[in-house]
């Protein structure tokens, strides 16, 4: 059978590469027990090791004094291998925003952004090295897709973020929110992303024990994957990156729209709301003279209301600058008129607070820049 992509056909498969080393976070608790038994140790050591990683946020063997000294280093090396190393850390907002560039085991580079607020922290994590969605206003999309990340590589970003929050602010991991809004389209890396969500919400020592309601899964509108997420029954927040209410413009801004149109993406988002009761976020990057007209806001409001009331919240986002981009953020007066048009339709609307723009850490700016 000829598997060569046809002209104009979109593909999501990442290039084949060597797999990351097996990590405790890739495995269920039962699978960890099997791995420990294979190493000649009693199965309960898997629970102890999991407690260190997910509850105590510890990875150093010398701190795991409840494990026998003999073979401890080997067990930790086998189930807690180093998955990523820090290349650079850049700070903004007096240290409350930290963008980290990570080098993965095979040299691929990803970024995550940790933002600390008064009573909580939010970490924006990557699910792929690069992105294959090709949205022209997004630095990550323009970089192309290098590869999918593993479940453990996704989880490790959160664990390291939790460790940093605890060290700097004394905060507990359960006050952390997690947003899949970093590099990559998480639903195009479905198995690993859902595996990561399960590790994040499962109680310790199975996982981190975070609230599903504090996790946001963002997508550009992969409709079949959105329906799969609905069927999972995990009440995370779904965020649909729409950016245009009309197919003609969205075909240009979000190329996946040539496969699944605006109406199909909104219908899938509404099905998610119906199944979970969780209000959906509509993300909309405001681009000057491109998609910021008040009539487009009115059209968006009309489309949303056609599907029901009280099921969405719109987050307009002033476009963050990226190198070489021909587009820029909307004029503040135009932005205000856009919001007013949505509110006139009764649509709850909040301008997204952007953090980290001066360190290229804001929405759409992540491009594995290590400078």
From TrEMBL:
It comes from the Bacteria. Its main location: cytoplasm. GO terms for biological process: methylation. CDD domains: Radical_SAM. It is an enzyme of class 2 (transferase). InterPro entries: Aldolase_TIM (IPR013785), Methyltransferase_A (IPR040072), RNA_MTrfase_RlmN (IPR027492), rRNA_lsu_MTrfase_RlmN/Cfr (IPR004383), rSAM (IPR007197), rSAM_sf (IPR058240). It catalyses: adenosine(37) in tRNA + 2 reduced [2Fe-2S]-[ferredoxin] + 2 S-adenosyl-L-methionine = 2-methyladenosine(37) in tRNA + 5'-deoxyadenosine + L-methionine + 2 oxidized [2Fe-2S]-[ferredoxin] + S-adenosyl-L-homocysteine; adenosine(2503) in 23S rRNA + 2 reduced [2Fe-2S]-[ferredoxin] + 2 S-adenosyl-L-methionine = 2-methyladenosine(2503) in 23S rRNA + 5'-deoxyadenosine + L-methionine + 2 oxidized [2Fe-2S]-[ferredoxin] + S-adenosyl-L-homocysteine. Binds 1 [4Fe-4S] cluster. The cluster is coordinated with 3 cysteines and an exchangeable S-adenosyl-L-methionine. The active site is at 111 (proton acceptor), 363 (s-methylcysteine intermediate). Keywords: 4Fe-4S, Cytoplasm, Disulfide bond, Iron, Iron-sulfur, Metal-binding, Methyltransferase, rRNA processing, S-adenosyl-L-methionine, Transferase, tRNA processing. S-adenosyl-L-methionine binds at residues 184-185, 218, 241-243, 320. Residues 117-358 form the Radical SAM core domain. [4Fe-4S] cluster binds at residues 131, 135, 138. Belongs to the radical SAM superfamily. RlmN family. Specifically methylates position 2 of adenine 2503 in 23S rRNA and position 2 of adenine 37 in tRNAs. This is Probable dual-specificity RNA methyltransferase RlmN. The lineage of its organism: Bacteria, Bacillati, Actinomycetota, Actinomycetes, Kineosporiales.
């Amino acid at each position: 059978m000829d598997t060569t992509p046809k002209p104009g056909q979109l593909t999501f498969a990442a290039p084949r590469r060597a797999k990351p080393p097996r990590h405790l976070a890739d495995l269920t608790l039962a699978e960890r027990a099997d791995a420990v038994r294979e190493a000649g140790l009693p199965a309960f050591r898997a629970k102890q090791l999991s407690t260190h990683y997910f509850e105590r946020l510890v990875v150093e063997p010398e701190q795991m004094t409840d494990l026998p000294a003999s073979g401890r280093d080997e067990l930790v090396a086998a189930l807690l291998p180093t998955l990523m190393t820090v290349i650079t850390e850049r700070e903004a907002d007096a240290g409350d925003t930290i963008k980290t560039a990570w080098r993965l085991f095979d040299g691929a580079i990803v970024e995550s952004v940790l933002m600390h607020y008064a009573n909580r922290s939010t970490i924006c994590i990557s699910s792929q090295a690069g992105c294959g969605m090709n949205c022209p206003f997004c630095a990550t999309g323009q970089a192309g897709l290098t590869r999918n990340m593993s479940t453990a590589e996704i989880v490790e970003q959160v664990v390291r973020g939790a460790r940093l929050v605890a060290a700097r602010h004394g905060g507990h991991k359960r006050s952390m929110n997690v947003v899949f809004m970093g590099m990559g389209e998480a639903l195009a890396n479905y198995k690993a992303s859902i595996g990561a969500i399960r590790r994040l919400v499962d109680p310790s020592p199975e996982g981190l024990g975070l609230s599903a309601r504090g996790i946001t899964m963002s997508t550009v509108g992969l409709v079949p994957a959105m329906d799969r997420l609905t069927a999972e029954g995990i009440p995370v927040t779904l965020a649909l990156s729409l950016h245009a209410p009309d197919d003609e413009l969205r075909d240009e801004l979000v190329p996946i729209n040539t496969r699944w149109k605006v109406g199909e993406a909104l219908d899938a988002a509404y099905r998610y709301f119906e199944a979970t009761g969780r209000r959906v976020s509509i993300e909309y990057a405001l681009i000057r003279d491109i998609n910021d007209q008040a009539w487009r806001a009115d059209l968006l409001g009309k489309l949303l209301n056609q599907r029901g009331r009280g099921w969405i919240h719109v987050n307009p986002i002033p476009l963050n600058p990226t190198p070489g981009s021909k587009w820029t953020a909307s004029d503040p007066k135009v932005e205000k008129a856009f919001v007013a048009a949505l509110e006139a339709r009764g649509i709850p609307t909040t301008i997204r607070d952007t953090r980290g723009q001066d360190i290229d850490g804001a929405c759409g700016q992540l491009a594995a820049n290590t400078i």
